[in-house]
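Internal tracking record. Fields below are filled automatically when a chain is submitted to the structure queue. Please do not edit lines marked as system-generated. If the sequence contains nonstandard residues, flag them in the REMARKS field before resubmitting.
Queue: standard
Priority: normal
Entity type: single polypeptide chain
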Amino acid sequence: MIPYLKKNVNPRNRKTTDCVIRALTVATGEDYYTVLKDLYELQVATGYDTAEKRTIDRYMEHKGWTKHKQPRRPDGTKYLVGEINLLIDEGDSAVVSLAGHLTAVKDDHLVDTWDCRNKTIGNYYTKN
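SYSTEM-GENERATED OUTPUT FOLLOWS
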């Protein structure tokens, strides 16, 4: 199972509902406020909220990331977030969608404000 690193990249260290911005900040290495600005510009252009899947999909595609469908094992069972290392190459970054949350993998660690490794992976993104 991939190790967990508790980290809040919110510049004011706030515990708030900014998981999309935090995950994208960690995975892309971009500044928190740059990611926030880019997401709001997409919201203005499309009319979709910054946390909607359509907005995240467009943002990630624009940044050169590839979206992957929910992975399943040959027997049909689903992978847990903590098992993302079985799906990506060592050292690769990923953004992982799970029910009501977005998280990031960077430097072979799950980086987030809480440990969601026991949750099921939805879609996930990797850098091309």
